[in-house]
Design a protein that fits this description.
hpI Integrase, Chain A, mainly alpha, 5 strands, two-stranded antiparallel ribbon
Length: 216
């Protein structure tokens, strides 16, 4: 688990799209694969929310889009759109669609709304359609960046991409949000899974308020 200060110190040591990616992991409580699979149409700037499609348990859910990310994420999406238009002009621009939707909607796999929010830097051939387009960024790139940023921040804890989701949950509870709200944001089927965070908060002497602190 990371403190808010530790989260900030890691993020400071990231840059570009990877920095934005990790901010979403922490700011929205996303799993790594959920962030990787985000499509342009899943970001709702007007309502400040993100639709996580086919998450764990194959269920859709909504989670918060941090207001502090709206400008940077909007700019990022415009860059993705510019890149996509360049790909289209070259005869590419295809993307894999979920649930074999390409069979029902032939041109949907070139539509901007279906493109990944975090596309790969390289073009690749879709093994299903045999067409050239962009898959999402490789997870190993994010994982390496997090490891490197953690080392530069001089944090000795074991930190993975999933650590930011855990920290999101813990910090929301610390800020007074109720367990049911947290359950919905995290996409837990059983509230017992979410309750683990209440146990985390209560463990250790660090969670105890000394009576001395009440005097000052």
């Amino acid at each position: 688990m990371l403190s808010e200060k530790e989260v900030s110190s890691i993020i400071v040591n990231l840059s570009g799209a990877k920095k934005l990616f990790v901010k979403l992991l922490y700011g929205s409580g996303l799993r790594l694969h959920e962030a990787l699979r985000l499509r342009i149409q899943d970001i709702d700037f007007a309502y400040k929310q993100i639709c996580v499609r086919s998450g764990k348990g194959q269920k859709d859910r909504f989670t918060v889009l941090p207001e502090s990310l709206i400008t940077d994420l909007s700019d990022h999406c415009r860059r993705v759109e510019f890149l996509h238009k360049q790909d289209i002009a070259k005869g590419y621009g295809y993307v894999t669609l979920p649930n074999s939707l390409h069979l029902k909607y032939e041109e949907a796999n070139r539509a901007f709304k279906w493109q990944y929010v975090f596309p790969s830097e390289r073009l690749s051939t879709d093994p299903i359609s045999n067409r050239i387009g962009r898959h999402h960024i490789d997870p190993s790139q994010i994982q390496r960046s997090v490891k490197s940023a953690t080392e530069r921040a001089n944090i000795k804890k074991k930190v993975s991409c999933h650590t930011f989701r855990h920290s999101f949950a813990t910090h929301l509870l610390q800020n007074g949000y109720d367990i049911r709200t947290l359950q919905e944001l995290l996409g837990h089927n059983d509230v017992k899974t979410t309750m683990i965070y209440t146990h985390v908060l209560s463990k250790g002497a660090g969670a105890i308020t000394s009576p001395l602190d009440k005097l000052y």
